[in-house]
Amino acid sequence: MTELLQTSLAHSSVQAYERHWYNFQHFVAIVLGKPFQLPARPDILGKYMSHLCVSGYSYATVVSMLSVVSFAHKLRDLPDPTAYFIIQKLLVGIKNAVGRNDMRSPITVVIMKKFLYYIGLLWGETWKAKLLRAIYTMMFALGLRIGEVAKSANTEHTVQMASISWILKGRRIVGFKLHLASYKFSGGETQTLTIRTVPGDELCPVTALLEYLAWRGGEQGFLFLTPSGKVVTRKWVADHLKQLISVTGLDHTKYNTHSMRIGACTRWAQLGATVTEIKLRGRWKSFAFTKYLRPKEVVF
Which helix (H) or strand (E) holds 112? Predict the structure, then answer.
Protein backbone atom coordinates (compact mmCIF):
# COMPACT_ATOMS: atom_id res chain seq x y z
CA MET A 1 0.00 0.00 0.00
CA THR A 2 2.85 2.38 0.83
CA GLU A 3 4.33 1.85 -2.64
CA LEU A 4 0.97 2.60 -4.27
CA LEU A 5 0.59 5.79 -2.25
CA GLN A 6 4.08 6.87 -3.19
CA THR A 7 3.28 6.50 -6.88
CA SER A 8 0.43 9.00 -6.41
CA LEU A 9 3.03 11.67 -5.63
CA ALA A 10 5.74 13.12 -7.83
CA HIS A 11 9.22 11.75 -7.10
CA SER A 12 10.37 15.15 -5.80
CA SER A 13 7.32 15.30 -3.49
CA VAL A 14 8.09 11.83 -2.06
CA GLN A 15 11.65 12.93 -1.28
CA ALA A 16 10.46 16.15 0.36
CA TYR A 17 7.82 14.29 2.41
CA GLU A 18 10.35 11.76 3.64
CA ARG A 19 12.81 14.52 4.57
CA HIS A 20 10.21 16.61 6.43
CA TRP A 21 8.85 13.55 8.27
CA TYR A 22 12.36 12.60 9.37
CA ASN A 23 12.96 16.20 10.56
CA PHE A 24 9.82 16.08 12.73
CA GLN A 25 10.77 12.73 14.26
CA HIS A 26 14.32 13.97 14.87
CA PHE A 27 13.04 17.12 16.61
CA VAL A 28 10.82 15.13 18.98
CA ALA A 29 13.39 12.45 19.79
CA ILE A 30 16.63 14.47 19.82
CA VAL A 31 15.75 18.11 20.47
CA LEU A 32 12.93 17.46 22.95
CA GLY A 33 14.30 14.10 24.13
CA LYS A 34 10.85 12.51 24.11
CA PRO A 35 9.69 9.19 22.66
CA PHE A 36 8.12 9.65 19.25
CA GLN A 37 4.44 8.72 19.41
CA LEU A 38 1.39 9.10 17.22
CA PRO A 39 -0.93 10.86 17.17
CA ALA A 40 1.31 13.86 17.82
CA ARG A 41 0.18 16.03 20.70
CA PRO A 42 -0.66 19.65 19.80
CA ASP A 43 1.82 20.98 22.36
CA ILE A 44 4.60 18.93 20.72
CA LEU A 45 3.59 20.17 17.27
CA GLY A 46 3.43 23.73 18.58
CA LYS A 47 6.99 23.49 19.89
CA TYR A 48 8.08 22.11 16.52
CA MET A 49 6.50 25.09 14.75
CA SER A 50 8.21 27.50 17.13
CA HIS A 51 11.50 25.73 16.49
CA LEU A 52 11.04 26.12 12.73
CA CYS A 53 10.21 29.80 13.10
CA VAL A 54 13.27 30.49 15.28
CA SER A 55 15.43 28.49 12.86
CA GLY A 56 14.53 30.95 10.10
CA TYR A 57 12.24 28.83 7.95
CA SER A 58 9.83 30.72 5.68
CA TYR A 59 6.08 30.57 6.19
CA ALA A 60 5.69 28.48 3.02
CA THR A 61 8.24 25.94 4.27
CA VAL A 62 6.49 25.68 7.64
CA VAL A 63 3.21 25.00 5.80
CA SER A 64 4.99 22.36 3.71
CA MET A 65 6.33 20.62 6.84
CA LEU A 66 2.92 20.72 8.55
CA SER A 67 1.28 19.22 5.47
CA VAL A 68 3.56 16.19 5.88
CA VAL A 69 2.55 15.78 9.52
CA SER A 70 -1.10 16.04 8.47
CA PHE A 71 -0.63 13.54 5.63
CA ALA A 72 1.10 11.01 7.90
CA HIS A 73 -1.78 11.11 10.39
CA LYS A 74 -4.51 10.87 7.75
CA LEU A 75 -2.66 7.94 6.19
CA ARG A 76 -2.92 6.09 9.50
CA ASP A 77 -6.53 7.20 10.11
CA LEU A 78 -5.42 9.21 13.16
CA PRO A 79 -6.72 12.59 14.36
CA ASP A 80 -5.00 15.39 12.45
CA PRO A 81 -3.11 17.56 14.98
CA THR A 82 -2.77 20.42 12.49
CA ALA A 83 -6.53 21.02 12.78
CA TYR A 84 -6.31 22.11 16.44
CA PHE A 85 -7.23 25.74 17.11
CA ILE A 86 -3.90 26.45 18.82
CA ILE A 87 -1.97 25.19 15.77
CA GLN A 88 -4.02 27.40 13.45
CA LYS A 89 -3.37 30.45 15.64
CA LEU A 90 0.36 29.66 15.71
CA LEU A 91 0.26 29.53 11.92
CA VAL A 92 -1.22 33.04 11.88
CA GLY A 93 1.60 34.19 14.15
CA ILE A 94 4.27 32.65 11.93
CA LYS A 95 2.81 34.25 8.81
CA ASN A 96 2.86 37.64 10.51
CA ALA A 97 6.38 37.09 11.83
CA VAL A 98 8.20 35.55 8.88
CA GLY A 99 5.75 35.41 5.96
CA ARG A 100 7.13 37.03 2.86
CA ASN A 101 5.12 39.98 1.62
CA ASP A 102 4.05 39.90 -2.01
CA MET A 103 2.46 43.09 -3.24
CA ARG A 104 0.48 41.29 -5.92
CA SER A 105 -3.19 40.78 -5.14
CA PRO A 106 -5.51 38.02 -6.35
CA ILE A 107 -8.00 38.61 -9.11
CA THR A 108 -11.36 37.58 -7.66
CA VAL A 109 -14.65 36.45 -9.19
CA VAL A 110 -16.00 40.00 -8.79
CA ILE A 111 -12.98 41.49 -10.55
CA MET A 112 -13.16 38.90 -13.34
CA LYS A 113 -16.79 39.80 -13.99
CA LYS A 114 -15.81 43.47 -14.23
CA PHE A 115 -13.06 42.58 -16.69
CA LEU A 116 -15.53 40.70 -18.89
CA TYR A 117 -17.93 43.65 -18.74
CA TYR A 118 -15.26 46.07 -19.91
CA ILE A 119 -14.01 43.68 -22.59
CA GLY A 120 -17.52 43.85 -24.07
CA LEU A 121 -17.66 47.61 -23.63
CA LEU A 122 -14.26 48.26 -25.22
CA TRP A 123 -14.14 45.63 -27.96
CA GLY A 124 -17.72 44.41 -28.41
CA GLU A 125 -17.87 41.01 -30.11
CA THR A 126 -14.71 41.39 -32.16
CA TRP A 127 -12.00 38.75 -32.47
CA LYS A 128 -10.07 40.57 -29.76
CA ALA A 129 -12.93 40.30 -27.27
CA LYS A 130 -13.41 36.59 -27.97
CA LEU A 131 -9.67 35.93 -27.66
CA LEU A 132 -9.28 37.87 -24.41
CA ARG A 133 -12.33 36.21 -22.82
CA ALA A 134 -11.01 32.76 -23.72
CA ILE A 135 -7.51 33.46 -22.38
CA TYR A 136 -8.49 35.16 -19.14
CA THR A 137 -11.28 32.76 -18.14
CA MET A 138 -9.01 29.77 -18.81
CA MET A 139 -6.15 31.28 -16.81
CA PHE A 140 -8.48 32.06 -13.91
CA ALA A 141 -10.26 28.69 -13.88
CA LEU A 142 -7.18 26.51 -14.29
CA GLY A 143 -4.48 28.62 -12.65
CA LEU A 144 -2.44 28.78 -15.84
CA ARG A 145 0.87 30.61 -16.09
CA ILE A 146 1.18 33.32 -18.73
CA GLY A 147 3.78 31.24 -20.57
CA GLU A 148 1.22 28.45 -20.94
CA VAL A 149 -1.24 30.58 -22.93
CA ALA A 150 1.14 32.95 -24.72
CA LYS A 151 4.64 33.18 -26.15
CA SER A 152 7.01 34.29 -23.42
CA ALA A 153 10.79 33.96 -23.83
CA ASN A 154 9.94 30.90 -25.91
CA THR A 155 6.97 28.66 -26.68
CA GLU A 156 8.22 25.59 -24.84
CA HIS A 157 5.14 25.40 -22.60
CA THR A 158 2.59 27.26 -24.76
CA VAL A 159 -0.59 25.24 -25.36
CA GLN A 160 -1.52 24.01 -28.81
CA MET A 161 -4.83 23.29 -30.49
CA ALA A 162 -3.94 19.62 -30.02
CA SER A 163 -3.74 20.23 -26.27
CA ILE A 164 -7.56 20.39 -26.14
CA SER A 165 -9.81 17.33 -26.11
CA TRP A 166 -13.55 17.72 -25.73
CA ILE A 167 -15.79 16.04 -23.18
CA LEU A 168 -19.04 15.02 -24.85
CA LYS A 169 -22.48 14.02 -23.61
CA GLY A 170 -24.08 12.60 -26.70
CA ARG A 171 -23.24 15.21 -29.31
CA ARG A 172 -23.14 18.07 -26.85
CA ILE A 173 -19.85 19.49 -25.55
CA VAL A 174 -19.96 19.60 -21.75
CA GLY A 175 -16.32 20.39 -21.03
CA PHE A 176 -12.75 19.96 -22.15
CA LYS A 177 -9.44 18.55 -21.04
CA LEU A 178 -6.27 20.57 -21.37
CA HIS A 179 -3.19 18.38 -21.80
CA LEU A 180 0.02 20.08 -20.67
CA ALA A 181 2.90 18.26 -22.33
CA SER A 182 5.33 20.39 -20.34
CA TYR A 183 5.20 23.22 -17.84
CA LYS A 184 7.52 25.07 -15.49
CA PHE A 185 9.28 22.58 -13.18
CA SER A 186 7.56 19.65 -14.95
CA GLY A 187 10.79 17.67 -15.23
CA GLY A 188 9.38 15.57 -18.03
CA GLU A 189 6.01 14.97 -16.33
CA THR A 190 2.73 15.83 -18.04
CA GLN A 191 -0.59 16.89 -16.56
CA THR A 192 -4.19 16.97 -17.73
CA LEU A 193 -6.57 19.61 -16.39
CA THR A 194 -10.32 19.10 -16.69
CA ILE A 195 -13.01 21.77 -16.74
CA ARG A 196 -16.74 21.31 -17.29
CA THR A 197 -19.38 23.66 -18.63
CA VAL A 198 -21.25 25.73 -16.05
CA PRO A 199 -24.49 26.82 -17.78
CA GLY A 200 -25.29 30.48 -17.25
CA ASP A 201 -21.91 31.30 -15.70
CA GLU A 202 -20.29 34.21 -17.53
CA LEU A 203 -16.89 33.03 -16.25
CA CYS A 204 -17.26 29.58 -17.86
CA PRO A 205 -14.05 28.95 -19.84
CA VAL A 206 -15.73 26.23 -21.92
CA THR A 207 -18.26 28.70 -23.35
CA ALA A 208 -15.57 31.34 -23.88
CA LEU A 209 -13.28 28.86 -25.65
CA LEU A 210 -16.05 27.64 -27.97
CA GLU A 211 -16.94 31.22 -28.93
CA TYR A 212 -13.29 31.99 -29.66
CA LEU A 213 -12.79 28.81 -31.70
CA ALA A 214 -15.87 29.63 -33.79
CA TRP A 215 -13.81 32.63 -34.98
CA ARG A 216 -10.38 30.96 -35.01
CA GLY A 217 -11.28 27.72 -36.69
CA GLY A 218 -9.91 24.25 -35.94
CA GLU A 219 -6.55 24.43 -37.70
CA GLN A 220 -3.64 22.91 -35.80
CA GLY A 221 -0.99 25.10 -34.24
CA PHE A 222 -0.90 27.29 -31.16
CA LEU A 223 -4.28 27.60 -29.46
CA PHE A 224 -4.39 31.37 -29.07
CA LEU A 225 -3.71 33.26 -32.29
CA THR A 226 -4.09 36.78 -33.68
CA PRO A 227 -5.86 37.35 -37.04
CA SER A 228 -2.46 37.18 -38.76
CA GLY A 229 -2.05 33.62 -37.51
CA LYS A 230 0.72 34.46 -35.05
CA VAL A 231 0.72 33.17 -31.48
CA VAL A 232 -0.26 35.82 -28.93
CA THR A 233 2.65 37.15 -26.91
CA ARG A 234 3.08 37.67 -23.19
CA LYS A 235 3.27 41.45 -23.79
CA TRP A 236 0.01 41.47 -25.77
CA VAL A 237 -1.89 39.64 -23.01
CA ALA A 238 -0.28 41.77 -20.27
CA ASP A 239 -0.90 45.09 -22.06
CA HIS A 240 -4.62 44.37 -22.50
CA LEU A 241 -4.87 43.28 -18.86
CA LYS A 242 -3.24 46.57 -17.81
CA GLN A 243 -5.89 48.40 -19.81
CA LEU A 244 -8.66 46.49 -18.01
CA ILE A 245 -7.02 47.09 -14.63
CA SER A 246 -6.98 50.81 -15.42
CA VAL A 247 -10.60 51.17 -16.54
CA THR A 248 -11.75 49.04 -13.60
CA GLY A 249 -10.06 51.45 -11.20
CA LEU A 250 -7.71 48.92 -9.61
CA ASP A 251 -4.23 49.70 -8.32
CA HIS A 252 -1.93 48.81 -11.23
CA THR A 253 0.96 48.17 -8.81
CA LYS A 254 -0.91 45.27 -7.22
CA TYR A 255 -2.22 43.40 -10.26
CA ASN A 256 -0.60 41.71 -13.24
CA THR A 257 -0.98 38.48 -15.21
CA HIS A 258 0.24 36.43 -12.23
CA SER A 259 -2.75 37.78 -10.27
CA MET A 260 -4.90 35.38 -12.32
CA ARG A 261 -2.92 32.44 -10.93
CA ILE A 262 -2.97 33.90 -7.41
CA GLY A 263 -6.73 34.33 -7.76
CA ALA A 264 -7.15 30.73 -8.86
CA CYS A 265 -5.32 29.25 -5.86
CA THR A 266 -7.14 31.63 -3.50
CA ARG A 267 -10.49 30.58 -4.93
CA TRP A 268 -9.62 26.88 -4.64
CA ALA A 269 -8.68 27.41 -0.99
CA GLN A 270 -11.95 29.24 -0.31
CA LEU A 271 -13.82 26.30 -1.85
CA GLY A 272 -12.11 23.93 0.62
CA ALA A 273 -9.16 22.50 -1.33
CA THR A 274 -6.22 21.42 0.82
CA VAL A 275 -2.77 22.92 0.29
CA THR A 276 -1.59 19.60 -1.15
CA GLU A 277 -4.49 19.56 -3.64
CA ILE A 278 -3.77 23.16 -4.64
CA LYS A 279 -0.07 22.38 -5.07
CA LEU A 280 -0.88 19.48 -7.41
CA ARG A 281 -3.64 21.29 -9.30
CA GLY A 282 -1.56 24.41 -9.80
CA ARG A 283 1.62 22.48 -10.63
CA TRP A 284 3.68 24.27 -7.98
CA LYS A 285 7.07 22.83 -7.13
CA SER A 286 6.78 23.97 -3.51
CA PHE A 287 4.23 25.47 -1.12
CA ALA A 288 5.35 29.02 -1.98
CA PHE A 289 1.81 29.87 -3.09
CA THR A 290 0.63 29.76 0.55
CA LYS A 291 2.02 33.27 1.03
CA TYR A 292 -0.98 34.45 -1.00
CA LEU A 293 -3.50 32.71 1.28
CA ARG A 294 -4.89 33.97 4.53
CA PRO A 295 -4.09 31.50 7.35
CA LYS A 296 -7.77 30.62 7.77
CA GLU A 297 -7.80 29.50 4.12
CA VAL A 298 -4.96 27.03 4.67
CA VAL A 299 -6.38 23.52 4.93
CA PHE A 300 -4.05 20.52 5.28
Answer: helix 109-123
Q: What is the DSSP letter of 164?
A: E
Could you tell me if 227 and 117 lie in one domain? yes
17 and 133 belong to one structural domain: no
Is 120 found in the same domain as 242?
yes
- How far is it, in rounded angstroms, from Cα 283 to Cα 226? 28
pLDDT along the chain (300 residues), means of 10: 50 74 89 89 89 79 89 90 88 73 82 97 96 98 96 93 97 96 90 94 97 96 96 96 96 92 92 87 84 67
For residue 263, give the H/E element and its range: helix 258-270
Q: Are residues 86 and 114 in the same domain?
A: no
Residues 6+ apart with CB under 8 A from 77: none
> What is the rounded distance in angstroms from the CA atom of residue 120 to the CA atom of residue 126?
9
Query: pTM higher than 0.70 for the full model?
Result: yes
- The residue count of the chain comes to 300
